[in-house]
Design a protein that fits this description.
487 residues; alpha/beta; Aldehyde Dehydrogenase, Chain A, domain 1; Aldehyde Dehydrogenase, Chain A, domain 2; 2 domains; five-stranded parallel β-sheet; binds 2-aminohexanedioic acid; EC 1.2.1.3; oxidoreductase; ALDH7A1-like; aldehyde dehydrogenase (NAD+) activity
Length: 487
């Protein structure tokens, strides 16, 4: 079945057409990957690291082209797309060095003339399923360390970012990743799920990495559980930003604008609800609404805060989120699709050519609202009041996600109390909820994931398994616990 990927800023622009695979093709790719992994694991880790270095250099050499393609295919503003490409380079740079570390340990034994060791072994074949909002950076967070650790990879990117995925894949092939070690399969959801199930049953997949919705994450988690596997799940978020009474309000507004509306709010780390102290609520809201009103939206090849939604599918779900706005809410400014009939001041380009939506700031949000409890993957931010920091922390935790959060405060005591009380995997102080750096643990808890972490050295635990070894050079049978030396 062919799939046509179009430019969401101009839907008549066809970016690529790919043939979607069946579940069978997914299984075949996993089989090739299984075969190829045996040889790849024998390549010394420092040499695998060199190949990762080649990838980083090739991405750098083709950075502008790749960024332009990402912008054309998913509508991410070009500045952010360049940042996304840089994130691959940063990831490669980190893991080049890891090829010369990938440390194990030497551990003392309780018996004389005996030495204990630990080794990191590759897991085998990693099946990586990723979303299209970060079509190249987030895949690199999985694929680069997985390969470095001696695994092979079967990658299922989002269809609507197929051209970006293909360009990313081509770089890996050109950098010297052997055939079969990295396979890409374009397939829609149910074929992927069936293929994955089959591959797990046949023992062809040893680790699953998934970035996407919490709903699909639960299904993948259940499937993996049946095969006694722990997947790496990076799911949705309802990321709160707390603005305390002593916060620098202009800074908080800048943070809320970028976190809430950067990438059109389509990051898993995007701001969900600004939880603002009652004493500064009105002033924060006034400045925030003004900033949103002045923000430039439109053609993502220019200098805009955000462009179109990723794809038609996301435009449709955004319409659903708008339906959560109730009588007791105040919506500041226009909502819905930007058209000639529903225009936006300062819009850059031609609105009706793509999936452009007005930014929605919704105040008067209550803790029982769908708007407050559910992820709204799009340019919509709720604003609500709190009176004590404990209450703000409780509100931050209430939706049950736990990916990212931030606090704007000039009081370090509040920042530390917030950090300790909030259930999120990532906490920002006086900075946006989004914009993770490539070498800090990335991941969430609760509905945001199963506690797995990506990035930096922490991701090594996803793509290696510890093996212990004990070596007895005493020349006799020494029995643990029984022959322990008495002092
Ligand atoms: C995601 O949306 O899946 O923190 C990841 C950020 C990004 C990653 C977001 N670097 O904004």
């Amino acid at each position: 079945m062919p799939y046509v990927s179009t430019n969401p800023a101009n839907t008549s622009d066809v970016v690529t057409e790919v043939e979607l695979a069946t579940s069978r093709s997914f299984v075949d790719a996993a089989r090739r990957a299984k075969q190829a992994q045996r040889e790849w694991a024998k390549v010394p880790a420092p040499i695998r690291g060199q190949v990762i270095g080649n990838i980083g250099r090739l991405v750098e050499a083709n950075a502008e082209q790749l960024a332009q393609l990402v912008t054309r295919e998913i509508g991410k503003p070009i500045g952010e797309a360049r940042g996304e490409v840089q994130e691959i380079v940063d990831t490669c740079n980190f893991f080049v060095g890891e090829g010369r570390r990938l440390y194990g340990q030497t551990v003392p034994s309780e018996m004389p003339d005996k030495q204990l060791f630990t080794f990191r072994n590759p897991v085998g074949v990693a099946a990586i399923i990723t979303a299209g909002n970060f079509p190249v950076a987030v895949p690199s967070w999985y694929i680069v360390p997985a390969l470095l650790c001696g695994n092979s990879v079967v990658w299922k990117p989002a269809e609507y970012s197929a051209a970006s995925a293909q360009a990313f894949y081509d770089v890996f092939a050109a950098a010297g990743i052997p055939q079969g070690v990295f396979e890409v399969v374009f397939a829609e959801g149910s074929e992927t799920y069936n293929g994955l199930e089959q591959a797990l049953t046949e023992g062809l997949v040893d680790k699953v990495g998934f970035t996407g919705s919490s709903e699909v994450g639960v299904r993948i988690g259940e499937l993996c559980g049946r095969h006694l596997q722990t997947p790496c799940l990076e799911l949705g978020g309802k990321n709160p930003m707390v603005v305390t009474e002593d916060a620098d309000l202009d800074l908080a507004v800048q943070g809320a604008l970028f976190a809430g509306f950067g990438s059109a709010g389509q990051r898993c780390t995007s701001l969900g609800t600004a939880i603002v102290h009652e004493s500064v609520y009105d002033e924060f809201l006034r400045r925030f609404v003004e900033a949103v009103d002045n923000a430039v939206v439109g053609d993502p090849t220019g200098d805009v805060l955000y462009g179109p939604l990723l794809d038609e599918k996301f435009a449709l779900s955004y319409e659903k989120y708008l339906g959560w706005i109730g009588e007791h809410h105040t919506v500041h400014g226009a909502t819905g699709r930007i058209t000639e009939a529903n225009p936006r001041k300062g819009f850059v380009g031609s609105p009706s050519a793509g999936f452009f939506y007005h930014p929605a700031v919704v105040s008067g949000v209550r803790k029982t609202d769908e708007m407050f409890l559910q992820e709204t993957f799009g340019p919509i931010v709720g604003v609500m009041k709190y009176s004590t920091l404990d209450e703000a922390i409780e509100l931050g935790n209430l939706p049950g996600y736990g990916l990212s959060c931030s606090i704007y405060t000039t009081d370090p005591n509040k920042a530390f109390r917030f950090r300790a009380g909030i259930g999120a995997g990532m906490v920002s102080v006086n900075n946006s909820t989004s914009g993770a750096e490539a070498h800090l643990p990335f991941g969430g808890n609760g509905k945001s994931g199963n506690g797995s972490r990506q990035s930096g050295m922490w991701v090594l635990d996803q793509f290696t398994r510890w093996q212990s070894m004990n070596w007895d050079y005493s020349g006799k049978l020494q029995k643990a616990q029984m022959d322990t030396l008495e002092i």
